[in-house]
Amino acid sequence: MGDAASVGLLEKKYSRRSFIKGVIAAGATASSTGYLMGGPTALGAQSMPGATERLITLNINGQDRRVDILPNETLAMTLRYRLNMTGTKLGCDRAECGACTVLIDGVNHYGCSMLTHQVRGRAVTTIEGLENPDTGELSIVQQAVLEEGGFQCAFCAPGFIMSMEAMIRVNPNPTREEAKMALSGNLCRCADYDKILTCAMRAAELARSV
Amino acid sequence: MADKLIGTDIAPPDLVAKITGRARYAEDFRPDGMVFAKLLLSPMPHCRVRGVDVSRALAMDGVIDILRAEEVPSREGPRESCLTDEPHYEGEPVLAVAAITEEIAAAAIEAIDIDFEPLPFVLDPLDSLRPGGPTAYNDGNYFARLPDAESGDPSVFQDFKWTEADFVEVDAGRMPSEAASTRSWEKGEVDAAFAAADLVLEEAIVHQSVTHHPMEPRTNMAYWENGKLYAHVSTQSAQVTKGALAGAIGIDADDVVMIAEYCGGGFGSKIAGSTVMQIPALFSRKINRPVMLRITRYEENYVGRARPGFQAWVKMAFRNDGKCTGVDLFIVEEGGAYGSGDNNTAGNIADLIYTPQNMRFRSVSMYTNTPPKAAQRGPGGAQIVSMLEPVLAKAGRELGIDNLQMRLINAPRSDATMGPRNGRFTSVHAIEALEQGAELFDWAGKMELSGRREGSKVTGIGVGLSPYTAGSIGYDGLMVIRPDGKLYVHQGIGNLGTHSISDTARPAAEILGLNWDQVEIVWGDSRLGQPRSSIQAGSQTTHAHTRANHAAGMDAARKIRAIAAQTMGGSPGDYVLDNGRVFRRGTSGMALAQIAERAIQMGGEYDGHELPGDIHAQTRPAAEMLAGEGLMGVAKDNYGRSGSTYSFVAGFAMVELDHETGVVAIKEFVAVTDCGTVIHPRSLAAQVFGGCIQGMGMAMTQRWVFDPQYGVSFANRLYTARPPGFLDIPEDMKWGAVGIADPQTPVGAKGIGEPPVGAGAAALTTAVADAMGGICLCRTPLTPDIILAELEGRVPAFGRLDQHVG
Questions:
Q1: What is the spatial distance between Cα B103 and Cα B108, in angstroms, rounded to a whole number?
Q2: For residue B258, which phi and psi values (nearest 5 degrees)?
Q3: Is B221 helix (H, G, I), strand (E, B) or coil?
Q4: Do A193 and B103 touch (CB under 8 A)?
Q5: pLDDT > 80? residue A37
Q6: Mutation target among A132, A189, A192 for the B interface, most CBs of B within 10 A
Q7: Can you count the helices (H) and strands (E) in chain B?
Q8: Which of A92, B585, B668, B674 could form a disulfide with A97, with the two C-beta atoms 3.0–4.6 Å apart?
Q9: B430-441 and B403-410 are packed helices; what angle lies between their axes, rounded to 10 degrees?
Q10: Full strand arrangement of the beta sheet holding B519-522
Q11: SS3 of B85, please?
Q12: Where are the strands (E) in B584-630, listed by range?
């Protein structure tokens, strides 16, 4: 995959316009607090005046999950605060860091910039869904990261690993430059980039040998 | 010591949790009944709350309560409280609202009617020094006894000002070299050195402030049970943080249960991080429910700390042979709302890396109405090294001496001394680091490319040397070999991502002849027993806790041998520890599991019922709790030391500067460190590269930009204050380590966290100067507009001493 192709793919995946259009379609009003989540429904709260929770079904890690969500709720918030799947991290809430990266139909997306109602009927994969559900075996990417001792504080790790998962599906034989491009939507403040790249290359190598 | 474990790559034991999403950071806990707090942040850099009406907010469905400044501990003077009615920086927390959802809490914040009285503010420390200029506090800008005053109350504010004549100089872009300072020292014969010099260079320096921005914002959650505070926090340290939080809210440290298994980065901003932690702790006590205070990235920009910027002036004297013989350095520091002391370290480090023998240092640190400053990796050192190394290169250019030679000629040797007290060092191998790096980088080959122009791109080559303190002493180690045969190393240090949480346990395992799978690291929960530990900052941990765990491991080995001799005959000295067993040559001996059982039967010192007299009072309760669980190793690090422990990193960079766009691309980078014995090569590489890249971010990609009219931050998110990403890093990176053991610590290892930052930054600033034909910009950030203005001879947007704001 050349640079131009991957940039094009990036735009397609992370279009801010589609996010904003999604909010409008969902009938939410723009507000400074619009990105926040509603609380656990167990608390019985109507989160915001005028905003009605709606029960929807999501397909997450191969399972159907029924969950009450607000129209303006982001996927990252639903995962973390409704479904208690806290492996997906929030580093910025605004599509700047990639810590919340998940796969939607196999493509990496920022969970903070995807409305939950937009992923109905689509397959969502999170960091919790990578291990083999029967054997508990780590995914190829996770094995590669473990072998190479990847990450330091590792707050960015789930997001990077999801981007690596997406990368090896699209391009299982990347050059280091291509791998950098594929992972450039994720930030690591420890700047462990060299080792992360080594992990990504090892993951691709393992993927090719399967 | 055998070296099965020292110098090998072993993945830290928490890595599987980290890569499966099972690792729980502070925001990942959900106790029953948990509610959410949101903060009302000051919209102005300095103001006072004139009136608050919270009735509309409190009437909202789901709002529980409000926490105000008068309910939290506060102290007089420029000292930070977790909430305040007189904020001294934009974004300072004023009050907090708790509600059953975070969204309701945020809506309630919007429904609070609050009236702020704007007060004068200052962003630029030079403005505060100007006669009649604004001050960050209502009563002055200086909170200590004035340096030349015989008397005066050190606990009240005073005004510290320069003269009108000084500002004639400032306004002409020159730091007034005779202006008053609040800190100064001098060594050698400075004036004589300058009079005798063959070359004197003089530069104005502006180094921006830089926000830390760890990936994990400082989110914290707390609740109370049976009078005890349960705090789930984001902190670099652990045992020390518990005490800091307890002290801050005025309770006994024994009444805090601290859970801090993971920390998503801190870089100095979360050494304790106890300011923001107080809010959920105090709020949950008030409303008797668990409180989650989720800090957003935007909030982190304000409450998350920053490295202080410098406006400075330097004069350096050189002999014709390239030796620096004099340094005169004057630093004005942007101290933020609550002050900073980076300037002091900067002065010492300038003395260390140029070994001038004759040095004058003066500084002023001024309070400013900007976010609070804190140590950021290599505090003081990183700023000054990245600003002065291009000056050294410029001197070499004028004297016709290669920059690497300049670096070597002026680098400290093992007899180096530093600062006004001429402090000495345990080991210095800067020369070896420079030479090894030069070879790895192919310095001679690269210098042939210096100044090469291809199209609009010009190649620049740079080298920088960065030292930093790398180890403290005197802490305690605590470990137990249980009847399952495993060694449980109890760590009071935090798990901040450096892997020191497990790497510092290796010496004990090695002494005890254990394989790594027979070692369990116990960390992250204060109930599990934590010995007195250092803070996880200033590159102390590797040094301090390889020593402490070495001492405790030796204590355990002594006890094992004593039990073995008593049980199996012979003298303790006959016994060898290997592969989980203790034995005399030619016999099978006993498994350590059996020894642990024997220790429990024997009691006394063997299982921790009797403890050494010199361990810290804070270690004692943990050891008492673990007594009887197995064979205990517990000891204070009494190994001693003469001199300071310092590590060094030499950084080498090749850049391409586009003279049409002002954009810098880092093509190649090499770093070689002198940090003593290498314990964990792969993790060391990550520390070295990571620190160097952070330094490049500090010098080039990050921004500290304020609106000068309203005093509010423009660069308050990651995209505006951008840390380096994959596309910003050097295309090719190599590293190395000198690997010479420090003779004054039993494992030989020194710390590494701090010095890479200055090395990455200095190699970059020097290479950029080289690509500009030797022009020292002596300022950060190295933005295209500033570079182009210089290259094209235009009037720059900023004067020589102007901060990069607005």
A1: 9
A2: -110, 125
A3: strand
A4: no
A5: no
A6: A189
A7: 22, 30
A8: A92
A9: 160
A10: B519-522, B487-490, B476-481, B631-636
A11: coil
A12: 590-591
Q: What is the ipTM score, two decimals?
A: 0.97
pTM of the model: 0.94
Q: How confident is the model at residue A210 (pLDDT cuts 50, 70, 90)?
A: confident
Helix (H) or strand (E) holding B279: helix B274-287
Q: Which two tokens stand for residue B231?
A: 């705090």
Residue entry with tokens 């491991």: B553
Cα angle at A156 between A192 and A103, to 5 degrees?
A: 125
At residue B146, what is the residue type?
L
Which is nearest to B214 in space by CA: B587, B589, B697, B714? Answer: B697
- Classify residue B608 as exposed, middle or buried by CB count within 10 Å of its CB (0-12, 13-18, 19+): buried
Q: What is the DSSP letter of B737?
A: E
Place of tokens 């003779």: B743
The C-alpha atoms of residue A140 and residue A146 are separated, in whole angstroms, by: 10
pLDDT in tens, B384-442: 999 999 999 999 999 999 999 999 999 999 999 999 999 999 999 999 999 999 999 99
Yes or no, beta carbons of B110 and A45 under 8 Å apart: no
What is the number of CB-based contacts under 8 A between chain A and chain B? 202
Contact B373, B342 (CB under 8 A): yes
Which residues of chain A are within 8 Å of residue B694 when distances are taken between CB atoms? Answer: 189, 191
Side chain identity at B348, as an amino acid letter? Answer: N
Q: How far is CA B304 from CA B258, B363, B729, in A?
A: 20, 25, 24
Burial class (CB in 10 A: 0-12, 13-18, 19+), B31: middle
Q: What is the pLDDT of residues B44-80, one digit of tens each?
A: 999 999 999 999 999 999 999 999 999 999 988 899 9
- What are the residue ranges of helices labelled H in B112-201? 125-129, 164-171, 190-195
Q: Are B765 and B387 in contact (CB under 8 A)?
A: yes
Find residue B256's DSSP bridge partners. Answer: B229
- The two counts, helices (H) then strands (E), for chain A are 7, 5
Mutation site, B726, B728, B735, B757, interface A, largest A CB count within 10 A: B726
Residue with tokens 């929807």: A56
Q: A189 CB near a chain B CB, below 8 Å?
A: yes
Q: By three-state DSSP, how is residue B16 classified?
A: helix
Query: Quick check: A154 contacting B, CB < 8 Å?
Result: yes
Distances in Å between the Cα of B110 and the Cα atoms of B40, B62, B98, B105, B114 are 9, 14, 13, 9, 10
Residues of A in contact with B102 (CB under 8 A): 36-37, 39
* Structural contact between residues B531 and B608, judged by C-beta atoms closer than 8 angstroms: no
Question: Alpha-carbon distance B46 to B92, whole Å?
Answer: 9
The residue whose two tokens read 């004549």 is B165
**Is the Cα torsion angle B659, B660, B665, B668 positive or negative in sign?**
negative
List CB contacts (< 8 A) between A126 and chain B. 21
**Chain B residue numbers touching A158 (CB-CB < 8 A):** 19, 21
Answer yes or no: are the C-beta atoms of A112 and A92 closer than 8 Å.
Answer: yes
Per-residue model confidence (pLDDT) at position B799: 85
List chain A residues with CB under 8 Å of B9.
Answer: 149
Query: What CA–CA distance (Å, rounded) separates B566 from A149?
Result: 43
Residue A190 to residue B681: CA distance in whole angstroms:
17
CB contact under 8 A, A190 and B217: no
C-alpha B397: how far from chain center = 34
SS3 B23: coil
Q: How far is CA B745 from CA A8, A185, B3, B670, in A?
A: 55, 43, 16, 28
User: Residue B693 to residues A150, A177, B1, B156, B552: CA-CA distances in angstroms?
Assistant: 17, 18, 35, 42, 36
B208 touches chain A (CB under 8 A): no
Cα–Cα distance measured from residue A157 to residue B18, given in angstroms and rounded to the nearest whole number: 7
Please state, in angstroms and rounded to a whole number, the distance separating the CA atoms of residues A107 and A84: 22
Can you tell me which residue has the tokens 């402090």?
B423
